Structures are given as C-alpha cells and as structure tokens.
Amino acid sequence: MTTRRAKMDGSIAFEYAAVDSRRVSEDGLELGSGTKTGEGYAGEGYEHSPRRSEGRQIMLLVLLYLLQGVPTGLAFGSVPFLLKSRLSYAQVGIFSLASYPYSLKLLWSPVIDAVYWARFGRRKSWIVPVQCCSSLLLLVLGTRIDILLVEPEAHVAAFTAIFLLLIFLCSTQDIAVDGWALTLLAPENLSYASTAQTVGLNTGYFLSFTVFLAFNSPEFANKYFRAVPRPDPLLTLGGYLSFWGWARERASDGGLKSVYLTIWKILKLKHIQLFCIVLLFSKIGFVANDAITSLKLLEKGFSKEDLALTVLIDFPFEIIFGYYAAKWSNGPDPLRPWLLAFVGRLAAGIMAMLVVWSFPADGHVTKIYFLAVIIQNVFGSFMSTVQFVSICAFHTQIADPLIGGTYMTLLNTISNLGGTWPRILIFNSVDWFTKATCSIDVPEPTLFAGLPPIPPFHHQP
C-alpha cells in the first residue's frame, strides 16, 4: 500500500491512498499488475498508447451514463412529483428510500471488480447483463405502473420496492462504468470521465424529468398538439417505461477476498477517514433545497409545465458547466472548484428559501417571479455541477485502475450517502413543521338569510 499526495488548495496538502498495482502490500497480498488498454489489464507494467482523439470512448461513456440517468430521473424526479399530489411528505420520504442503493453500492462493488467472465470482458460481464435485466424490469413495470398510480397511497411499499430494484441495477452498472472509465481513457484525459458522467446523467435525467412531465401533462398536450382538448396525456408513465425497456463463464482476478481486504486497508487510513467524514456531512446545508424546493413551489401553485420549462432552460447550462468544471478540476488543485462551489450552494439554498417565501399570495406567477425561479435554479445547478464534476475528477485521480470500480465506488458511495441520509429526515420535518388547514367555501348571506324556508308549492287542480 503506497500513498501519494494531491493538493486540495494552494496551502493544504491532502494525503490519500492508492493501491500500487506493481507492488505487493504489507501483508504479502498480491493484487496483480496489468497494462492499461481499452478492455482492461493484461501483462506486466502500466502502459497506454497515445491517441489523437478519444471522442468515441467519451461518447460511449456518455451513452452508458445516459442509460443510468433515465431510471434515476424517474426515481429522483418525476415519480415523487406524480406521487406528491396524492401523498404526504412523509409518504414521499418513504419512497425516497428507493435511492439508497446508490449510497450502499460499496457493499457489492468488490464483487463487480473481482468476479467476471474473462473472455467477455471485465466490465462488459456486468454491464450487458445489468442492461438486459433493467430492460426486462422496465417492460414489466410499464404494463403495471399506471394501475398502481390510481391509488398510490395503497401501493407506497410496492413503488418503493420496484424502484429500489431498478436503482440497484443502475448503481451496479455505475460501479462497472466508473471502473471502465479509468482504463478506457488516457491518464491525461481522466478528468473528462466526470464530464461524460455529468452530460450522460443530466441528459437522462432531463428526458425523464422535463420531457416526460411535459408530455405527461394533458394541459401541455391540449395547448400544443390537439385541436380538441382531451383529459388524457400524450405519454403515460407506463408507455415511457416500456419505450426505454425496448430501447436496452466467471473468472477471478486478485480474488474477491483480496478486494474486500484492500477496501478495509484504505478505510483504516486516517486521511481517508477524515475525507469520508467531510463527504458524509458536507451536504447537510443544501439537502433541503435539493429535495423540497420544487415540491414546495408546486404545492403553492407553480405549474408542472413552468417547472419543466425552468429545467429545460437549465439543461444546456449544465452541459456547458460540466465541460468547464472538468477543465478547472484538471490541475494541481482539483478540489478548489469544489470548495468554492460549496459556498455557492449554501447561497443557492438561501435564494431558494426566499423564492418559496415570496410566492405570490394570489397564485399568479408574474414574469419577474418566473425569472427569479429560473435564476435560482440555474445558479444552484451551476454550483451543484461544479461540485459534482470536481469531486468526481478528484476521485479518478486518486483511484487505482486495478480496483477502479471499487475504489471509485468507495468514495462516490460516501459522497452519495452524504446527500441521501438526510432526505427522509427533511421530508418528515416538513410535515412536522407544516400546519395544514382546510377551508370550506360558504355562500355569502343574502337578504332572506335567517328566514324560515319556504314550504314546497303543490299545484292543486
């Protein structure tokens, strides 16, 4: 086990651990060695042939991350919006448990690194079967999901279990793709792996959130596509899931036990422990903004179509931000953008609080207020994208490609868990601190109020 050093900023040096694939660890555990190629490791040493362009490899990563972003966009975005109109915040909080596989994938990431079919490929041995299972699940779910949506309060557990399985498959693919990116790209281009992840995940999320919510809205369909209004949407959740369902010998290297032991050795390092604590608690200040702001706007009367439009406007900015964030993170201070964006996200949370608080009392969304929502959303997205790309670029720099999937997963899991574990507390807190009232419209008193009712008139011949 060796250590390297990378500067967090101009003055603070952060010591991290990496398994040297050309050495034997302290206790004699041999991890093997390999040559870096597009398919994985073979032979001795560490080499990478120079390439003029790695556009095809980057586009492949974008496509794989996009396929992950579609289900996560549904689980983290569209489905909670569809459920919120009929469920309490506490019940929506129960559904948020479906996102936990992304925060627990470290438990099975060593299996992804150590067990595979050598003739098929180290990463493809997992990516292809997971894609097949995800496709089958989406096809089956597409035939049943609209029925479950009729009475969602009776099927909260079913919704949670189904999307828990779907996100489990996505997180498993994420482990394999993260590890593959370390061997697919040249060392000098590793920061663009986080760019590919940002573009792919955001595109998939955009399709499952903005595009789906727009075509799932009868008002949107009646306004832009129909001459005669109808109450049904252009695209149902079942149809969307079915579309994406149609659109998707083992070997051991180093040993499964070896990878788990390596994880334990990494976690025993003091600087890794401190880094994990930072990742675990650094997002508390802006989880409420990420999880609740949009739902609160909808609750106050902000339309789904307008909210989808804000995300549509924000989408190209996220792609641009992801590209430049990767360039900013590709240097001796890869975490400096993350540190600066941390302050920015706290400011974005304060802006979001003011935007929700200042929602028009009459429910009429003016152009100025709509512009304020867009500015807050774009600014918060900018800060979030910079943090995400910066931390992922840092992870790719310190991860050892030999156990790349596990090493990346170890750090990404802690980072994801930092944004996941507070969510159910936030959702329940909103219910605890929200005073719900119910009012009944009573007709105004008339001139004859208080007089006895007039008896019915019966015609007598």
TrEMBL record:
Membrane topology qualifier: Multi-pass membrane protein
Residue ranges of the TM segments: 58-83, 128-150, 156-177, 189-215, 272-295, 307-326, 338-357, 369-389
Subcellular location: Membrane
One GO location term (cellular component): membrane
PANTHER family cross-referenced by the UniProt entry: ACETYL-COENZYME A TRANSPORTER 1 (PTHR12778:SF9), SOLUTE CARRIER FAMILY 33 ACETYL-COA TRANSPORTER -RELATED (PTHR12778)
Superkingdom field: Eukaryota
Listed GO MF terms: acetyl-CoA transmembrane transporter activity
Keywords: Membrane, Transmembrane, Transmembrane helix
Example GO biological process: acetyl-CoA transmembrane transport
Listed name of the protein: Putative membrane protein
